[in-house]
Amino acid sequence: MSESRSSMALRFRGFLPVVVDVETGGFNANTDALLEVAAVTLEMDHEGLLRPAERVHYHVDPFDGANLEQAALDFTGIDPHNPLRGAVPEEMALRGVFEAVRKSVKANHCKRAILVGHNAFFDHDFMKAAVLRTDLKRDPFHPFSCFDTATMAGLVFGQTVLAKACEMAGIPFNQNEAHSALYDATRTAELFCTMVNRWRGMGGWPPPPPSEMPPTLARKTSDF
Questions:
Q1: Per-residue DSSP letters for 147-196?
Q2: Which of 57, 109, 124, 179 is catalytic?
Q3: Which strands sit side by side in the sheet containing 34-44, from one edge to the other?
Q4: Pair 105, 53: CB distance under 8 Å
Q5: What is the pLDDT of residue 207?
Q6: Is the bond preceding residue 143 a cis peptide, omega within 30 degrees?
Q7: What 8-state DSSP symbol labels residue 197?
Q8: What are the pLDDT digits (tens) for 63-107?
Q9: Three-state DSSP class for 141?
Q10: pTM: predicted TM-score of the whole model, two decimal places
Q11: Which end of the chain, C or N, has fewer beta carbons within 10 A?
């Protein structure tokens, strides 16, 4: 096992962070259409720094009976009925994403993926609803835990809006390309990696061995 992949497996307790972004026809995961999904896997270099790896993206056909809110379509600029989108059924899109995620989980010697998103509950809820609709098995993501970059960015940069957090992090952000699942997932991945790497640079990872910790902190750490 390479040192970098071993470190990735250790960094998040055996979970592999995978950044996901969805574009939808509304806010209700159970009734509104999933229209785009993108995922960005992450890897760790030999210095222990995270970086984006593979990107996967699908335009998705609305499921039968899906609700489409015009305000949501105006916001994203998506025309769900445009044949030039090259959209695929939900099941095909999820299978493609899950295949890439499972491959990355295995390559990094992790046991499962954990979803990373900006306001992650939204993306997580739509993914879980689509899994139920398509009756897919072996969902590689943790069923309820996720990493939310909006919360993390609020702590690190004092900003919770993706564009503003990226600006504070020195990551270029083009508003004209925003609200595309692939673009937003890519920028979210860069933001997540920047914050995790900054924490490491401040001495936050790897943690010192218990013998070098203050006694109180060592006792608390042993409880996890």
A1: EEHHHHHHHHTS--SHHHHHHHHT----TTTTT-HHHHHHHHHHHHHHHH
A2: 179
A3: 50-59, 34-44, 15-24, 112-117, 141-148
A4: no
A5: 65
A6: no
A7: H
A8: 999 999 999 999 999 999 999 999 999 999 999 999 999 999 999
A9: strand
A10: 0.90
A11: C
Spatial neighbors of 40 by CB under 8 A, at least 6 apart, are: 18, 19, 52, 53, 54, 55, 56, 185, 186, 188, 189
DSSP result, 78-102: --TT-GGG--B-HHHHHHHHHHHHH
Structural Rg of the chain based on CA atoms: 18
124 assigned to active site: no
Distance CA 102, CA 125 (A): 20
Tokens of 224: 């996890």
Residue 220 has pLDDT above 60, yes or no: no
Structure tokens at 35: 């229209």
Among positive and negative, which fits the CA dihedral 177, 192, 22, 92? Answer: positive
In angstroms, rounded to a whole number, what is the distance separating the alpha carbons of residues 65 and 9? 41
Q: What is the dihedral of CA 72, 73, 77, 78, to 10 degrees?
A: 130
